[in-house]
Each structure stands twice: as structure tokens, then as C-alpha cells.
Amino acid sequence: MRPEILYPLFANISSLKGVGDKAHKFLNTLLDGDKIVNLLWHLPSGIVDRSYSPKLVDAVAGRICTLKIRVIEHIPPKTSKQPYRVIVEDDTDQLELIFFKIYADSIKKNLPLGSTRIISGKIENYNGMWQMPHPDFIVKPEQFGTDMKKETVYPLTAGITNKMMCKFVQQALAKIPSFAEWQNKDFVKQQNWKDFKTALTNVHHPKYSTDLEPWCAERSRLAYDELLANQLALAIVRQKIKKQPGREIRGNGMLRKKVLESLPFELTSAQKNVLNDIYADQAEKFRMLRLLQGDVGSGKTIVALLAMLNAVECGAQAAIMAPTEILAKQHLDTIAPLAENIGLNIQLLTGRVKGKNRTQILENLENGDINIIIGTHALFQENVVFKDLAFVVVDEQHRFGVHQRLNLSEKGNKADVLVMTATPIPRTLVLTAYGDMEYSKIDQMPEGRKPTDTRVLPIDKLQDVVAGLKRKLAEGARAYWVCPLVEESEKLDLAAAEDRFAALQLVFGDKVGLIHGKMKEKDKDAIMEKFKKGEISLLVATTVIEVGVNVPEATIMVIEHAERFGLAQLHQLRGRIKRGNNASTCLLMYAPPLSETGKERLNIMKHSEDGFEIAEKDLELRGGGEILGTKQSGFTMFKIADMSVHKNLLHIANQDAKMILETDPKLETDRGNALRTLLYLFEKDDCVKTYKA
Ligand code: ADP
Ligand code: MG
What we know:
Blueprint: H1 21-31, H2 36-40, E1 46-49, E2 64-75, E3 84-89, E4 94-99, H3 104-110, E5 116-122, E6 124-126, E7 129-133, E8 137-139, E9 150-153, H4 162-174, H5 185-190, H6 196-203, H7 217-242, H8 254-262, H9 269-283, E10 289-294, H10 300-313, E11 317-321, H11 325-341, E12 346-349, H12 355-366, E13 372-375, E14 389-397, H13 402-411, E15 416-421, H14 427-434, E16 438-442, E17 452-458, H15 462-474, E18 478-482, H16 497-508, E19 512-515, H17 521-533, E20 538-541, E21 554-560, H18 567-575, E22 584-590, H19 596-607, H20 611-622, H21 630-633, H22 647-663, H23 670-681, H24 685-689
Parallel strand pairs: 4-7, 10-15, 10-16, 11-13, 11-14, 12-13, 14-15, 17-22, 18-20, 18-21, 19-20, 21-22
Antiparallel strand pairs: 1-9, 2-3, 2-5, 3-4, 5-8, 6-7
The protein binds adenosine-5'-diphosphate and magnesium ion (MG).
């Protein structure tokens, strides 16, 4: 349970003054959440300096000036196209304020003739006359506060002005409680850091542009808080799994031998090396917890199967958990023929397996008739009981589900855990996503794979692309067409899958299908099945297909608005058309103009197919900046920390977390208690919960 001290920060933003239904909706999207704490993590991106307040005669055109003026004349517009003008003066010169499309009443009210006001805005010189279009503020002298000299600027979205954002953040800041320090106090002192509340408050009141840099002291403190929460959560999971005794799994190799003999190929040496790592872990008397990294198509599934067979040879059971039904079914399709061929009982258990069928599966899991079960998170529901589960594979693709690793392994009898990911992760990020987990890498592709012909094209070549597709599909090819979003979002000019689908239907008729994330699993499966069978030959998709769809006949992929995707994600997507040994083509379509970085990113895709190289480049180019679509790629896991800047802090946090658990494994000391709050603050709830078990 979340500690009470955090309640105010986890209250809904609608409890703030000025946040109505509309603002709530906009903020929820902008902040990626609707809690007060989400608002606090939304850090400023700039400062407007209003401290420049010259006399008009000395003013420099183009600068933001704060001026004390008298109102001397109102000039209402003669036609609706003209602006409303107000002439004002100081002791040295005159200035014309210009207002377009503003009600005369409100101008008269704010700038009464003869009154003195303080105004601020950008000043321009027009034919020898000073002008200020739309002052940023107009206040009475007695209302002017020194805090108005600096204005914090936030990243915004339509419907939320900077003024609103500042007001909301101020209210949110007032709700931060005084926390007991969760960091090592000497370390905080040594770094010259303030306490959490002060640091966060200061971050929202930047004075100089350096206060906006991720490496400034205040932001570093917060980044470290976040990194420690991250590393501690991972260390807790690891401790939980590792501290339990394991079992020595050493099968006789008979099943594995038969499967290997039935394969039409030899394992690559990378696969063999990885298997040796895994077999060695299994044979140890400790529990295994290992990460298996391998690019799309590198052959992880067969590795997982062989490791499972090692356990099955010892008379135990094994399980694979996949993040989606489609993926679970796909694993079944690959593994079942091989396993059944050697007389094993292998079944699928997902949320959709119901009734008698489900009862039977549950029974056979409990009595041990099922050797290998493949499923989704449905596998760790309470009523699922194994006779003797010794080996668990968690296929994460590129979602990182710390608590799921835990849950399923708890079903087992000292079960070993192999976590698989298809995301090539740069070294630094391995630490952030997996902590100190041992890991192996399949760094070699099976032989015979043909390179993909990747081309980068502007979106105005769309008609040519469609014409080309028409030819290819007529020859029997199958293709994906990927669009970034499901529905037209208001301001973002994203190609909507539904619109594209409708447009392509006009050309391809019933040969085109649509699949997107909001569809029911059943409907998704049905469409996938049709695509597999070739009943449809063009599949318009949102990024749902990213997650491991296997249709070897599909050799063409068009990605619309490729510039909006993370590189890792593009790489995953492209992996979909490299399942067989056929030549494949990937068309990356972008909307010009492309930024320099944008160009470079798409160029990398054109020239490299090495996932690890692409991932490193992605991290390097992305730096602290944000790119649409990276969220789905699983890499942007941090609200504040920035891996291109805070790498060192990450390593310190890693050591710190280890030491904390060595000296205070149950988080019972004062610092331990404070650290629990930290874990909840960064929403690592699942990990803290394990302490109650
Ligand atoms: P992923 O790592 O993406 O899960 P898979 O395990 O699905 O990759 O393998 C992709 C394809 O490559 C499958 O069709 C599989 O049978 C095949 N494959 C796996 N290992 C080899 C190998 N050593 N040589 C040739 N083909 C292989
Ligand atoms: Mg073992």
C-alpha cells in the first residue's frame, strides 16, 4: 500500500484550481498521467527573462522589455482587418501597443486612459516608432512582483497555455510533503545537493539557462532519486529470486538430441554458446535468472525450447510467458510440432481459453501431464497450479515487466528464469532495464539471410509506392503497411491507419485488411490468420505488428511517417519481413522537411541491419531529446534521468542499491523506510509489495 505521506502527490490533477474537464484531458495526454506527481515531473524547458527594463529611448529592438508606461490614446480599428492600437509613453518616448482580434472592452478595461501600467513583451521598431504586439502581461504597478521578472516556460500542448501550466505547477509544488531523506546523507552533502522538496521546487523555478540542463545539481539530485528507485526495484526482484535455493537440472539430453536431429538447420555458434551458458546455470544449485538478448530472427525460440527440454528431461515442467496472445500462439506454432514429434504434451493457456478446455488444461498442469505450457499473463493467475514447474521463460520482446518475472517464478518449484528480449539494448540500458541480471547475447544471424533493401522516400511519392505495390501483390507478394496512430489525433498530422485503410481499399479491394491495437484479440487473430493464408495480401497496421508476428511470406513493408518512430522500433518492424530466406524490401516514408538528425536516423536504417549498432546510434542521436514513438520502444523509462548525461549516476545507484540490500535487506531501518516511500514515489509498487510475502 502506498504510504499516506504520498497521497497528496497521487491525488488527481482535477483537484487543482483551474483544471476542468477539458484541461484534464489535455494534461492527461501531455503528462502521460493525471496525478499531481505527473505534473511535478513535467520539467521546464525554458525561461523568459523579463528583467530588462530600459527607458524607451535606450531600448534595443527585438528584446523582451518590461516597461512602466502611461496610457495616452486609444485608436480603435476602422475596419475589421485593422488592429486595435493603444499609444503609451514613458518619460523618453512613445510606444504603440498592437492588438489583433481582441475585444475593445477588455483593452479599455486593462489600459484606461491616463493610467500607469507595467507591461512586458517583445519590442520592435517600425518606421522609427516603437511597437509591441500583444504584451505578455499588463499589470498595475502595485500588482507587479519581482517573480514576474522570470517566467518559467514549459513544454505545452494545444489547450494548455504556459500561464495555466505555471499556475497548476505552483499548486502542485505546494503539495509536496517534507520527506525523510532517503539518500545517503553524506553522499547528498558531497554532491552539494538539496533535499528532494527543495530540489524539485528549484527545478521549477529556474533562474539561469544552466538551471535547465539535465546535469545541473537540482536535476541531478532528482535523476539520482529516480535511478536509485529503478536500481533498487530491480535489485529487490533479483534478491528475491536469487536468494532461494535452486535445483540442479541436468537432463540426459535425449529429447534435445531428437529435436536437434529433426531441425533442417544447424544451430549457429552464437546459439550454441548461449545454450552452454544456460545449461551451466541450470546445473548450478542456485536459481537461474538470465537475460537472453537476440535480435529479431536470431533464433531465440529454439534456444528457449532446448533449455526447457533440459528441465523436461528431468521429469519437470516448463512454461513460456509471452506479452500478447498473438505471440503466445506464435510460440505454440513454432514449438508444438517439434515437441509433439518427440511425444511431449504442449498446450496453450491464455485468457481466451475457457470452459471445459481450460479445466482440462488446469487439471493436466496440476497432475503433470502437460510438459510445456505456453501462455500469456493468464499463466500466473491463482488457480493455475503446476505439478513441478522447473523452468520459466519470460518473453518480454521489448516490454519490461519486472513484476511478471517475479510472479511466474513463484509458481514454480525453485524454478529457473530465462528472460528473453528481442530488443537489442545498449549496455547502459541493460543495467536500467535489468539491473545486474546475468545476460547472454545471440550476436549472429543464421546463415542465408538476405539483406533487406531499405529505401527512404518522401511522402509525396505515395502514388508511386502504391503503383509498385500493385505490381508486386499481383505477382503474389504480401506486404505490411504501418501507420503510427489509430485515430486522427487533433493537431498531430499523423496518417491514421483507418483513413489509409479506406484509401487503399479503393485500390486493392478486399485484398487489404486492417489490424490495430484497439481491436479485440479475436478479431486480430482472425485478420492475422487471413494474412498468413494469403486471403489478404496487404495488411494495414498500427505498431501492434511490431510484437513478433511471424508471416514468412511477407516480404514488403511500407512505414508511413517513419521519422516519428524510434530507431529501435523501426528495426523491430523491419524484422517482420525478414522471417524467411526471401529478399525483402522496406520503404521508409517521411514527411518533409526532415531535420539533420532525422535524416541521419533514417540513413542509419538504410545502411545498417545490426540491431545493436542501431540501438547504440539511437541512444547517441536521441540524447536528451524526445522523439515520438520512443515510448513504445520501451527505452524511455525515465521521467527525469537522461542516459546520455547521467550514466555515472546510474552506476553509483547500482552500487548503492546493492549495498542497501546487503545491510538492510528488508528495508527496516529509518533510511529503509524512507526508501520504501521513494519506491512508491516512482511507482515501483510491485517490488515493495514483495516484502509482505
Ligand atoms: P527470434 O529470435 O526472433 O525469436 P526465431 O527463433 O523465431 O527468432 O527464429 C527465426 C527463424 O529462424 C525461425 O524460422 C527459425 O526456425 C529459424 N532459425 C533459428 N535458428 C536457425 C539456425 N541456426 N539456422 C537457420 N535458421 C534458424
Ligand atoms: Mg539451477
